[in-house]
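seq/struct pair 1
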Amino acid sequence: MAWDEWEQLKAAAAERHGTHMQLNQLPADRGASEGDLISNKPAWTRIGTDVGSLREDISKATAKLKDGQTGLGSDSGCLTAAAQKDVHESWATYVERLSGRCGKLSGLLVKAGTDQVRTDESVEAEVAKLNVAYADTPAVGGQGQGR
């Protein structure tokens, strides 16, 4: 397929779709402002670490939740104590699962940043291979050749 034909096909496809998404890099001189999407390894790592740090806060909340249950004694004969025990068990399970979810999500976010960098690096390496494999040959003829 000739390059001109390819360009015509792309133009025709663009005309068929009035609204489309365009993913381009911002100009280098433009700084990030409120609402701009930043997608790089440090950003992914930072958010992954932040989500992971929620586990520490959840752990503290779990300890306070457990401390609040001490001294209730047996729930036999007291409907309020029985209800409180059920609610405590429900919340303890919820908080434990939430902590696990934060841990898994943290790892996934950090991995996403690492994978993104690896993808960018692998694409860059493949393009570099193309540049080597299909490098322009030095021009011949018409040069002074030391004359």
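seq/struct pair 2
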Amino acid sequence: MPQSLVKNYILINFSTKHRNDFIDEKIETELFAYISALCKDLESPALQIGGTDNHIHILCLLSRKIAMMKFVQEIKAVSSKWMKTKGRKYEDFFWQEGYGAFSISPNNIFPVIQYIKNQREHHKEYDFKYEMINYYKKYKVNYDEKYIWD
């Protein structure tokens, strides 16, 4: 086959180091736009980016030319350096070392977009840690809690 046809919708999430509250509403729009531009540069356009003070979700169409690990590593490294340039408050900004990445069926793209758009409201009821553990249980994702938080 002379061409490669790939369409991988991926939901990626990761938190700030120790889930520290760095992503306030003052910086989030600019941060999400910056990460969206990074995704585009890596040929993996973001369909939606959102989050709260201590984590983000990225729904993207992952390029066939980049490995998931490399994609996330690049997004986290470059955006972390960028955040540190945005003022004293952000000088100690770091992302957690790990991440979650889950394939999304094309039939579920719009509910996932809505879910990401509604993060601040959603997390008034559930914190990120509670949400992720329940997600892992619901979808039977094997994990060891001592390794998922840093």
